[in-house]
Every structure is written in C-alpha cells, then in structure tokens.
Design a protein that fits this description.
The structure holds three protein chains of three kinds.
Chain A lengths: L5 H4 L4 H5 L4 H29 L11 H36 L8 H19 L18 H4 L4 H28 L12 H33 L12 H35 L6 H16 L14 H13 L1 H13 L10 H18 L1 H5 L1 H7 L3 H31 L5 H28 L15 H31 L13 H4 L28
Chain B lengths: L28 H22 L3 H28 L9 H28 L15 H25 L3 H31 L8 H32 L5 H27 L1
Chain C lengths: L2 H28 L6 H33 L16 H34 L6 E8 L2 E5 L5 E3 L1 E5 L4 E7 L4 E5 L4 E5 L5 E5 L5 E6 L12 E7 L1 H11 L14
Parallel strand pairs in C: 1-5, 4-10
Antiparallel strand pairs in C: 1-2, 2-3, 5-8, 6-7, 9-10
The structure holds heme-A (HEA) (2 copies), dinuclear copper ion and copper (II) ion.
Chain lengths: 534, 265, 249
C-alpha cells in the first residue's frame, strides 16, 4: 500500500478528535468511555470486596454506601462497559474495515451515538456527587425503586440515553453491513464477527425499546403518580419484572455473541486456520441463539409468582439455549483442529475463554432447573455464575480483542512479556475469586448483602474471595500498564503482524488512513477471510 | 429522535481517491446535540421532580432546548452543504429498521396495558368518566388525511413540482398540529373532570399511550419542519422526504391501535 | 472429514451420557424414596453436578489435546483444515443438537418431579402466615399468636408458610430447607418444608429491599411437639382456648 501517512498523522488536534465523525476515532472514544466505566466500576467492586471482609461494617457503617457502589457496579459494568465495548468500540473499529467500506452509513449519527453514550456515563458518574443517589440495583425492581428516596430518575435516563445510543448504532451498522460491503464480499464470506454483531444489533433493536418502556413506567409511577406497578390500585410489580427481563435476558447474548465473534477472529488468525463449520456456526450457533434468546426470560422470575405452565415451558427453552451456545463452542474448539497455533497474548486470552466460559455456561444449567433454582436464586451462586460467564469470559474477549487489534489501531506493537504476565495474573485471580464464590452461593449466602451477621461462618470464604479479587485488580493494572507502555515505547507495527487473511490486515496499513483504503476495495471470486489453506 | 434521518443528506467521502480524502472529517453538531439532550431531559427532569428545584430545572431547560434546536438546524444545514451525498441511498433502509424499534416501544406499552386490563375485576375501573367518542373519530380523520396529504406532497416532488410539494407539506404539518391540538383539548377536558394519570390503571394507560403517541406526532412534525424550512429556501432532499413520510405513515398506523384499543374496544 | 469421524463423535459424546443416565437410574432404584423436597433437592443437585462436570471435563480434555497437538512448529506454517463437506457440516450441527437436547430433556423432566414436590403442600400441613416489611418478618400462628422475626414450628409435620408483604418485595429464604419464595404486596404466595429434627435455622431476605436488606432475617425454631404445644398454650391470647382449624397438633 502506498504510504501517505504524513498528511494525516502529523500532530494531535483535540478539535479533530472530539468532533470527529470517522469510525476509527469514534471507536477510540468508545474504548475510552467503556474502559473508564470498567475502571470505576472495578474500583467499586474492590470497595465492596473490602467491605465484605467482616460480617459487620468494615470500611463504612452505612449500608447505603454499599448499595450505591453495587448499583453503580452492576449498571456501569453492563451498560457502560461491556455492551459499548462490544457494540461500540469493536463494532466501529472493525465493521467498515472488515467489509472494505470507507466508513459507516451515517457517520454523523455514529458520532451522536458515541456522545449520547458518554452522556449516559456522565449521568451514571453523577451518582457519586448528587444527594440521594440511586440505590436500586441494576434491576431497579419496583415497588422499592418507587418508594426509595434515591434518585430513580437518573437510572431511567441513564438507561434511556445509552439505549437510544444503541438503537441508533443498530440502525447505522445494520444499514452499513447490508449496503456497504465491498464488491465481491457475499453473505457467505463475511467474517464471523460481522455475523455475530448483526445478531447482537438485531437483538438490541427488538428488545431495547421494551426495556425503555419498563424504565419509563418506573419514573412515570414514581414522579407522575401513575399506577403501573402500584398493587393497591390494581397495578403489579410483576409487569416490570417481565418487561425488564424480556430485554435483560437477551442482553446477555448481545454481550456474548460479539465477544465470541471476536474470539473467532483471534482463533482463526492465530491458528492460521479456517473456521470450523462456518455455516453451522452462523446459522445454527449465532442465529439459533438469537431465535431462543427472546423466549427464556422467565428463568429470572421463577419464584416471583408467575403461573406454573409458563415456568414449565421456560425450563425447557432455557435448557435448550445450551444447544446453539454449545455449537458456538464446538466451532471455536474445532477451529484448533489441524491448525497451527501460535500462543501470542490474544490467543492466550482466547484459550482462557474456552475454559472459563465452560464453567460459566455450565453453571447456568442448574439455574435453569426450576426446583434447583428455588434454593440458589438470589444467592451468590448466581453472582458467581454471571461473573464467570460475563465478567470473566467476556472480559477475556474484550482484552484479548484489544491486544489483537492494537497494532492496527495504534500502529504500535505491545510487549508480549507484559501481555502474558497480565493474562497470568488475571486468569489466576478470577479462578481464585469465582470458584469459591460458587461454593459460597451453594451454601446459601444471599446477594446484595452489605453485611452477613446471620452467617458468621462464611467469613473465611469471603476473605479468601476478597484476596483473589485483589489479584484480578493487579492483573488489570498490568494490562493497563502494558497498553500504556506500548503507546510510549512500542515498536512500529507492520501492516499485518499476525499474517491474517482478513481484509483489515491485508488491505490497509497500520493505522489506516482517513477513508480506510487508498483504493476502493474489491475482492476476487476465491477470496476468503479464512482462506489459509485452499 | 429521528435525527438520523437527516444523515442521509450528509456526505462524507468522495468516490474518487484524492488529497481531500486524507483529511479527518468532523462535525460539531453531534456532540453539541448530546450535551443539549443531557440538559434538556435528564437534568431538567431530575431538578424539577427529584430535587424540587424549579429554578435549576428552568436553567437546565434554558441551556438544553436552544442547544438541541441549534444543533438540529446546524446538522440539517451541514447536510445540504455537503456535495458528496455519501449517505444518500441508505436512509430508505435505515428508516424501516428504526421504525421496527419504535414499534416495539409501543408493543411494550400495549403489553402492559392489556395485562393491567385483563387482571382487573371490572373494566373500566372505578373513577373512569364517560369517555368522549366524537373527538377520537375526528382525530382519526385528521391524521389519516395527513397521511394522504404527505403522499400528495411526495407525488408532487416526483413530478418536480416544488411549490406544490411545499404546499402539501404545509397542509400536512397543519393537520398534524391540529391533531395535537385535539389531544391537548381532550386532555384538558378530562383533567377537569378529575381524570388524571393517578386516577386508576385505565387513566395510567390512557395518558401514557395517547401522550406517547402524541410525542411521536411532535417528532414527526419536527422532522417535517427540517424539510420545510430548507424547502422554502429552495433546497430539497428527496430521500429525506421519503424517509420522513415513512415515519409519518408509521405514526398514523400506531394511532389506529391506540384509538381502537384505548377508546373503542 | 468423513462419516467415520462423525461416528467417532457420536461415540465420544453419547456413551458417557447413556452410561451416566443408566447409573443414575440404577442408583435411584436402589436408593431411598425422598420424603421431603429438600432431600430430593440434594439428590438432584448431585446428579446435576456430575452431569455438568462430565460435560465440562470432556470439552476441556478435547480442547487441551488440540491445543497441545497443533502448536505452531515453524514460523511459516499454516493450518490445514479444509471446508467441511455438506454432510459433515450438517452432522456437526445435528448430532450435537440431539445429544445436548437429550441431556436437556432428561434434566428438565427430572426437574419437574421435584418442582411438583416443592409446590404441592401435603394435606396435614401446619400453616403460619408471614408478612414481610422493611425490615423484618411478622409471623402469625393459627392460634392467634404473633411473633417478630421468629418462627416456631413443631417437628415432624409439614409446615406451610403463606407469604405477603406490606410494602416492597421481600423474600423468605430458609437455606437449610432449600426453600424460598417472593413476598409481594397485594398477592399471597406460599412455600412449605418438612422439619424432621428439632433445631434452629436462619430465614432471611434475598430480594433487595433497601438499607437494611441484609439485616432482614429471623430465627426458625423447630421444637419438639410437646414443647411447641406448651409454648402455644403459654402464649396464645387469653380467653381464646379453641385452636383454629389447621391448628396445633
Ligand atoms: C454474558 C452473559 C451471560 C450468559 C452468556 C449467560 C448464559 C446463561 N445463563 Fe445466565 N445470567 C447472566 C449472564 C449470562 N448468562 C446474568 C448477568 C444473570 C443475573 C442477572 C441478575 O439477576 O442480576 C444471569 C442469571 C441467570 C439465571 C437466573 C438466576 C436467578 O436469578 O436466580 C439463569 C436461570 O436459568 C441463567 C441461566 C443461563 C443459561 C442456561 C445460560 C446459557 O446460555 C449457557 C449455555 C452454555 C453452556 C451450557 C456451556 C457450553 C455448552 C456446552 C458445553 C454444550 C453441552 C451442554 C449441555 C448439554 C448442558 N442465568
Ligand atoms: C461485566 C460485568 C461485570 C464485571 C467485569 C464485574 C467484575 C467484578 N465484580 Fe461484579 N457484578 C456485576 C457485573 C460485573 N462484575 C453485576 C451485573 C452485578 C450485580 C449487580 C446487582 O446485584 O444489581 C455484580 C455484583 C458484584 C458484587 C456484589 C455481590 C452482592 O453483594 O450481591 C460483587 C462483590 O464483591 C462483585 C465483585 C466483582 C469483582 C471483584 C470484579 C472484578 O473482576 C473486577 C476487576 C476489575 C477491576 C478492578 C478494574 C480494573 C481496571 C483497570 C485497572 C483499568 C482497566 C483497563 C484495561 C484492563 C484496559 N460484583
Ligand atoms: Cu427484605 Cu430484602
Ligand atoms: Cu437469563
């Protein structure tokens, strides 16, 4: 590729960054926002873990402090960190590059998406400075969220801002993928990541509006006196629980699918191998998950008083989710077969995912069994389940994916030593933390507890978990340092350091110029993003 | 809401490689609009309802509303000044996708409405006055006519009859405004009879559904204004008008659901 | 990627599951009948843990094997997998579908038996009423006694607890008996358990309900029948000697 780098990389202009409409820079804005949310929410986790060292008050004597930390932690980790990192940061960086487009379909709308997301983050961060901050957990169940003196309006609006940002993103990216693929890139030749992202956005477009109605009703009830969830007037809090989970269950696949998509790219690249059973993965795994995602939400409210028949149906639909997700996992493991595996840092993260996700996914199976659920619902078992599957597994995908695209994004290589050290700490830390956490839940320790004076026998396990979580923090710090180190000291990255066959590595330099490609992209008949062995 | 429609008049990269292409494109409006929205909705709402501080709420509105309006205007203007028409053909794909999401907002409210309704011992619940039936019929006629008039406007545009287009567009906007006027009138009547959102679950659903639909009419009118004002200055974007009219038809269809289920069923 | 490997896969996955299910059934026929839902819970839990550990270990072993076997040996090496033939591609979807579905349906049906046990209250149950509030439980006994954050029940008899709330959603969770259910304002729910031995247990709230959510708990005291009757006699309101229906033993 011809290099005309000087014309656009010289100098840093703040104005060109904050007013940018270029998808690559918007990706960076998403990355900064979502990592900031991760960092602050992670600090809240450290505070909570420290608080739980003793059954009574440890670092605060006011339970409301703990509840606000927990509210922020849950909401920011899901709405501020993982969903934007995957459907904002990764989507923006890769979609146009992978399909050979100059930008997304509506660049200005794209900028609006990222800034609305940032406003959502700002609103969430205001939690720490306003009087009566929201203390209603990320689920915001009424009637508590209506009775509390806490600021439920901020919860509603945080969800609405980020939700609208995501809907705009969905409209934008689906249009881009449908309309702007370079000539020659047919549906059968799309990268798995693109498929996974489309699936995630389809879920967002269908279900986010429902969440929007749920949280809107919450504020209508609380501030304008409507009766949606007011049992005394004939309303019912169960309406909220249903609307909320109708979105929030599918949301876990909005997180899972793009994460798995990124891992497919990593595994294919570092095994220099073709994706195992491409069609099976796309149609069976990805779209199968989408198809089932909307019919299992009752498994969050098995003991809330839903009718028997629906519970019985949803036990089976929930268990059936193991099928498409299992196919996704088989495809990922199968890609190793006959491969040529190079354990660079991104591949280490992918390897870690293969084991961590097994634990997380399989601990979802007991949850789905309504009779087992009676005991483990609302306990730390559930918390450990979703930390394994979401906090841990998906974070490996996000960090692994960051290392993977780092050379393209910054034009700098990172240090393998630091990268591997970070992975080792992270992997050790999460298992030390979350394996005993599962056991703690099995023993009956409830969720969302500031203290546990009724269960003094759990103190040693709690302390062990806290100790493990400090190691995770250390790991995250090393990861952060390795990235900063690369920015300052990293060697210049070649165009295609991994020897990948995918378009973003083969057709443009690192980092790509404005407009992405110096010539319009066109691929041949036998081009294949995974065509290592023809 | 609906701002992305303006995108289709936005142009960015040139088809042909050239020196121009190697510059980073920027626009100040998305960021300004986001800040405007932050002040306009969340902050103003919270100051007023949560912290009971009307002064701060008013200041918040005073910052948010102009910022949002200026951004929309700037955005539209920028779109017309862009000669590349980069996003032009995409909006007729984007709008249906957006409408899908919008439709599901109403699905959420209707689902809640039917659950509430079917779990009551009697319907309508106590405290509900006699609902007016004439007004909704008139409103339906008004809104359906506006769907027809916007169709005429589009036809005129296809025939390149620009002043005809403008005329029909103005008529459509007037009908939309009339519709909103009726909503306001009816709300006022009911309010005076003591039927407010707090009265019972029917009033809850009634005011949310009609209010929510009304807010969509308002957004539709804003979208039309963004076509009308440049049109008066002689600038028209056909794909924009097509997308805007799709949105308007959608708002019209939703009204059929509202009127049939909330008033007559 | 021919038919042989497909067959091998079927063997790999189905054998342990068939083997396991027959083991479980054999063990069940030999084992005791459950008399309480909580014992059934423990049994099902053990079964489930075996199930998911076996699946997890199979996947982990296959993954580890592939990771070791296919390490990169020279810098320019590439992978050598070819596109699957359509029949193999279908096989790699359909066969896992059947195996996973078989396991899912097996587990789901098992679950229904226990679910029924949890939800069907025996006829002769002793019934107390529990009302949740921010932040505590009020327990009412059929004899007209009321206690706060303390629930006394007789041993050796099924106990039903009806659940209500006077403000927000709470939960009654008794970890030792593996039961919990939500307490909602405006509706009455229930749970039941079968205390076989006298002793003390904790019941606690698992639905977030505000500042003192973690402080919302009480003591469940399972008493020998005599002691319980004595306690009832001593505490019931004066002048009301006749126990209500469903009352003391
Ligand atoms: C990325 C996020 C993510 C993912 C992917 C999942 C995946 C799954 N989850 Fe999880 N879940 C959450 C995030 C996630 N979850 C969160 C955040 C909560 C709590 C919310 C809250 O209350 O705050 C939650 C809560 C939750 C509950 C409610 C618990 C409760 O509130 O009491 C249930 C119940 O059924 C459940 C089940 C499942 C199941 C069956 C899967 C399945 O998709 C898993 C499928 C995967 C596998 C099974 C492993 C791989 C497959 C194979 C190896 C094939 C063979 C396997 C078999 C045949 C069994 N989850
Ligand atoms: C993606 C989601 C996610 C992630 C990543 C995490 C990560 C962690 N979580 Fe959390 N958690 C949730 C989602 C998540 N959690 C949710 C949804 C809830 C439920 C909320 C509710 O009940 O309503 C919850 C609840 C929850 C609880 C409350 C349990 C209870 O009382 O009921 C606790 C308790 O300690 C906890 C701990 C932790 C810990 C120690 C980590 C650690 O893994 C965190 C480690 C990370 C850091 C310390 C950040 C360090 C970052 C940097 C140094 C910079 C980063 C930059 C780069 C790496 C590039 N989590
Ligand atoms: Cu009551 Cu939590
Ligand atoms: Cu779920």
């Amino acid at each position: 590729m011809s290099v005309r780098a000087e014309t656009y990389t010289s100098g840093f202009s703040l104005k060109e960054w904050i007013f940018t409409t270029d998808h690559k820079r918007i990706a960076v804005l998403y990355m900064i926002g979502s990592f900031a949310a991760f960092f602050v929410a992670g600090l809240m986790a450290m505070l909570m873990r420290t608080e739980l060292l003793t059954p009574g008050g440890t670092i605060t004597n006011n339970p409301t402090n703990y509840n606000v930390w927990l509210y922020f932690h849950g909401a920011a980790m899901i709405l501020g960190y993982q969903i934007p990192a995957l459907t904002g940061y990764f989507a923006n960086y890769y979609v146009p590059l992978m399909i050979g487009a100059k930008d997304v379909a509506f660049p200005r709308l794209n900028a609006l998406s990222v800034w609305l997301f940032w406003m959502g983050i700002v609103l969430a961060l205001l939690t720490f400075v306003i009087p009566d901050p929201p203390d209603i957990m990320w689920t915001g169940y009424p009637p508590y969220s209506i009775k509390t003196p806490g600021n439920t309006a901020f919860y509603t609006f945080t969800v609405l801002l980020i939700g609208f940002s995501s809907i705009a993103g969905g409209v934008n990216f689906l249009t881009t993928i449908i309309r702007m693929r370079a000539p020659g890139i047919t549906w059968g030749k799309l990268n798995i990541f693109i498929w996974a992202l489309m699936a995630a956005f389809v879920i967002q477009l269908i279900f986010v509006p429902i969440l929007g109605t749920a949280v809107t009703m919450l504020s209508l009830d609380k501030y304008l006196g409507t009766n949606y969830f007011n049992a005394a007037m004939g309303g019912s809090p169960l309406i909220y629980e249903n609307l909320f989970w109708f979105y929030s269950h599918p949301a876990v696949y909005v997180i899972l699918l793009p994460a798995v998509g990124v891992l497919y790219e990593i595994v294919a690249t570092f095994t220099r191998n073709r994706v195992f059973n491409y069609n099976g993965v796309v149609y069976g795994g990805i779209w199968g998950t989408v198809a089932l995602s909307g019919v299992v939400w009752i498994h969050h409210i098995f003991v809330s008083g839903m009718p028997q028949w629906i519970i019985i149906i949803e036990v089976f639909t929930t268990l059936a989710i193991s099928v498409p997700v299992g196919i996704l996992l088989i495809g990922l493991v199968g890609t190793l077969w006959k491969g040529s595996i190079d354990f660079k840092t991104p591949m280490l993260y992918a390897t870690g995912f293969l084991f961590l996700f097994l634990i997380g996914g399989l601990t979802g199976i007991p949850n789905a069994m309504s009779s087992i659920y009676i005991h483990i619902h609302g306990t730390q078992w559930i918390v450990a389940h979703f930390h394994y599957v979401m906090a841990v597994s998906v974070t490996t995908a996000i960090i692994g994916g960051t290392y993977y695209m780092w050379p393209k994004l910054t034009g700098k290589m990172y240090s393998e030593t630091l990268g591997k050290l970070g992975f080792a700490l992270f992997f050790t830390g999460v298992n030390l933390t979350f394996l005993p956490w599962l056991y703690l839940g099995y023993l009956g320790m409830p969720r969302r507890y500031y203290g546990y004076s009724q269960f003094p026998q759990f103190q040693p396990i709690q302390q062990f978990i806290t100790f493990g979580s400090y190691i995770i923090f250390l790991g995250a710090l090393v990861i952060l340092i390795s990235l900063i180190h690369s920015l300052i000291k990293g060697e210049k990255a070649p165009q295609n350091p991994w020897g990948s066959k995918s378009l973003e590595w083969t057709h443009t330099q690192s980092p790509p110029p404005p407009g992405n490609f110096t010539q319009p992209v066109k691929v041949d008949e036998d081009w294949d993003p995974y065509g290592y062995n023809k | 809401m609906g701002n992305h429609i303006m995108e289709e008049v936005v142009g960015h990269a040139k088809e042909h490689a050239g020196a121009h292409e190697l510059a980073w494109h920027t626009s100040v409006w998305p960021l300004l609009m986001s800040v405007g929205i932050l002040f306009l909705a969340p902050l103003a709402f919270a100051f007023y309802f949560v912290y009971q501080n009307p002064l701060l709420a008013a200041i918040s509105l005073g910052i948010g509303a102009p910022l949002t309006i200026i951004s929309i205007a700037g955005w539209v203007k920028e779109g017309f000044e862009d000669e590349h028409h980069y996003s032009e053909g995409h909006s007729i794909w984007a709008m249906p996708i957006f409408i899908l999401a919008e439709a599901l907002l109403f699905v959420g409210f209707f689902a809640a409405y039917w659950v509430l309704r079917l779990t009551q011992p009697s319907w309508p619940p106590q405290g509900t006055p006699e609902m007016p039936l004439l007004i909704p019929i008139i409103m339906t006629i008004v809104l359906v006519s506006s769907s027809v008039t916007i169709h005429f406007a589009e036809k005129r545009l296809e025939e390149d009859d620009r002043s005809g287009f403008t005329t029909w567009l103005i008529i459509t906007i007037a009908l939309g405004a009339l519709f909103l006027g009726f909503t306001g009138f009816e709300w006022n009547e009911l309010w005076h009879e003591g039927f407010t959102p707090k009265t019972n679950v029917y009033s809850t659903a009634f005011f949310s559904l009609t209010g929510f639909h009304g807010s969509h009419v308002l957004v539709g009118l804003a979208i039309f204004l963004c076509a009308l004002i440049p049109a008066l200055a002689g600038k028209i974007s056909k794909p924009y008008v097509t997308a805007a009219s799709m949105y308007w038809h959608f708002v019209d269809i939703v009204w059929f659901f509202v009127v049939s289920q909330v008033y007559f069923w | 990627m021919g038919k042989r490997s497909v067959k091998r896969l079927v063997g790999l996955f189905s054998t342990p599951i068939i083997f396991l299910s027959s083991l479980v059934y054999a063990a069940k026929m030999a084992g005791p009948e459950y008399t309480t839902p909580s014992e059934g819970w423990d049994e099902l839990w053990r079964e489930l843990m075996i199930d998911i550990v076996v699946i997890g270990v199979i996947f982990a072993i296959v993954t580890t094997y592939l990771l070791i076997k296919y390490r990169r040996k020279s810098p320019n090496e590439t992978g050598s997998a070819t596109k699957l033939k359509p029949i193999a591609a279908f096989g790699w979807v359909l066969i896992p579908v059947f195996i996973f579905m078989a396991d899912d349906i097996y587990l789901g049906l098992e679950n229904l038996i226990h679910w029924r046990d949890f939800r069907n209250v025996p006829q002769n149950a002793y019934t107390v009423e529990a009302t949740g509030r921010m932040w505590g439980y009020e327990i009412k006994y059929p004899e007209g006694i009321t206690t706060q954050n303390e629930m006394r029940v007789p041993v050796g008899r099924p106990i039903q607890v009806t659940l209500q709330s006077s403000d927000v959603i709470h939960t009654m969770f008794i970890p030792d008996y593996r039961v919990k259910w939500d307490m909602l304002p405006g509706t009455v729910h229930y749970l039941w358990f079968y205390p076989k031995e006298a002793g003390e247990h904790v019941f606690t709230c698992t639905e977030f309900c505000g500042v003192l959510h973690s402080g919302m708990y009480g003591k469940l005291i399972v008493m020998p029948v005599d002691a319980f009757n004595k306690w009832v006699d001593e505490n019931k309101p004066k002048g009301e000697n006749k126990p209500k229906e469903g009352g003391a033993v």
